[in-house]
Known about the structure:
two-stranded antiparallel sheet; mainly alpha; single chain; two-stranded antiparallel ribbon
Amino acid sequence: MSDILAARAQMAVSLGFHIIFAVLGIGMPLLMAIAEGLWLRTREPGYVDLARRWARGTALLFAVGAVSGTVLSFELGLLWPRFMELAGGVIGMPFSLEGFAFFTEAIFLGIYLYGWDRISPGAHWLAGLLVAASGMASGVFVVTANAWMNAPTGFRIADGRVADVDPIAAMLNPASLNQVVHMTLAAYVATGFGVAAVHAFFLLRDRSNAFHRRAFAIALAVATVAILLEIVSGDATAKMVARHQPAKFAAMEGHYRTEPGAALLIGGLPDDAAMRTPWALRVPRLLSFLAHGELGATVTGLADIPRDEWPPTAIVHLAFDVMVGLGVALLALTAWAGWLAWRRRGLPDDPRFLRACVAAGPLGFLAVEAGWTVTEVGRQPWIIWKIMRTSEAVTSMPGLAVPLVLFTGVFLVLAAVVLFLLRRQFLETDPARGAAAAPGDR
Length: 442
């Protein structure tokens, strides 16, 4: 295995593992805060039980996310030293702000966990809101740094070195707003459907269980709002990519020939040698509309881009189709939920719908993984778009296959431990209340 391939594989494994906990770190505190807010409003004890249980899960996920995030920070310097040498002065501010947000989240999560019955209910809920806000802010700052890699601004290159750095302009690059909104909503979608799946599983055993009914309702409501907004955000993000990264957009769509009124290709397997995408479903003129808002607009194809600047077309196209397909599936599930809720004037708890929710639990996380594959692989061969190639940024340190195997093993062990602890937590029940009971709760 070449050094550059090993470095990219190690970074991909680390990012793929960490992104799950980053997503949950954004979404779970919101669910937790909503549950406590409903308790403050209704004084129903089931809501405070739910907030306590979700808080314990949030703490566990936060701890593992901190470990995997620390690994990533070391890997940036060890695997990509030339990238950090060039870009460190430009994207240092968002990474510093992310650290501030991380510590803010840790402080208020500690207050939240140990502040039950020690501070006023209003102050305790405020601490939970600050956990949710700082968790979201942490993700926002990291995504702005990644967006800068896709649309670098706020500096100039003089004699091969970065000069005249404007960190605010770098953070507010043309890709920043779209990526931040899209990723934040994706976190709420994945967490909402994932948590709804867990409680739908228990409702299939006992549809009258008040604890799981409340939890399912909150998670499904968050997921529903988020997926509707995510569709709008996805359209805006695709238009931004078409403007600023035409090679990535063409690879996403398996589009080879520059033409007006371009057709949207659904499915298919791109063939770079023949420059076509066989077995794809064609929707005439729709790609032009999705890219530029006009049915007759011209869409740049890969044929008009230098061959050495093409991303791996098949990987990017398939990942994009997976992301969109999973999003459409979750949107359909949301429509089903809305129809059942309207028809029954209550929680959509039809057993068939609950089974569908259980099956859909992982889909949001798979969509996030596919989306990040599109973002990162679609930028290749550039690590900083049109500024630095990935091959120029990688370390010259040999033997990278060894840490790849080592860190992959560590991540697998951590994943097994987390699954074991979460499973044990959810399976603990209090028969007297018919609800999940948090050990040590008063």
